[in-house]
Amino acid sequence: MAKCSAKTKTGRPCQRKVVTGTSRCPIHQGPWSAYGVAQRKEKEAKEKKRKIRKKR
Ligand SMILES: [Zn+2]
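The joint structure predicted for all components is written out below.
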């Protein structure tokens, strides 16, 4: 199985396994990868809850 090997914050190549059909791991595919979208949705859901709480 190929490794992502994108540069991480520490300067070392990423050791995560790539997602099948791509050349990057879920984290390094960018904001529009399934992983990125899922995280954004979670964040938005949290913010929505917060707004509702603020209202009342
Ligand atoms: Zn990676």
